[in-house]
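re: ur question from earlier - yeah i can do the single chain one, its not a big deal. heres the input i used so u can compare w yours
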Amino acid sequence: MGCTPRHIRALIADGRLSAERVGARVWAIAPTALDHYRRHRGETAA
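and the output i got, formated as tokens:
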């Protein structure tokens, strides 16, 4: 995505990027969630 892991974590925390925690420090982000974020930046993730 061209951004830092910290930014990705902030997007997840804000609900702007859907993800599932799969470990203490690991997140799984579905390709469809990335596509949704790219299309709807600034809106709340589904």
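The beta strands are 20-21, 27-28. not sure if urs matches, ping me
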